[in-house]
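Slide 14.
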Amino acid sequence: MCQVEIDSTTPVSAIMSKKIVTIAPDDSLQVVRRLFDEHSFHHLIVAEGGKAMGVISHRDLLKNLSPFVGTLSEKSRDTWTLDKRVHQVMSRSIVWADKDTPITEAALLMAANRISCLPILDQKGRPVGIVTTVDVLRWIAEILQPELGCQSEAA
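Slide 15: predicted structure.
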């Protein structure tokens, strides 16, 4: 039987995405939508003057847009939802970590707060990365991979 050991001291900097895109609180949801489409990710850090103020997720965007935007049924009253501002829909209570926070601690923080991303901030509150539940799951899967190989050998 294989024994898997998780190094509980591995910092989030080992798995965080350093490719972050920030958005201003006064930007429109149209800009948010474009950024999500361009970059194929689901979280943006809201920043002003370089300092993180909150997060807006793809789910936040979808909850605040008319379901008819971009369809044949779209009316002018539907497109006005794209004019809403980020500060109107973003999550303001930002839960964050620094780059030295252990991944296990970050995962527990995300679970306890029921969030799917964790901005990684420097000492001045500036974003330096982001960790998502997908990043944590990928890390766990890489740790478990040797165990999966041992199971197939035993069969």
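Speaker note: Residues 12-154 form a domain with the CBS-domain fold (CATH 3.10.580.10).
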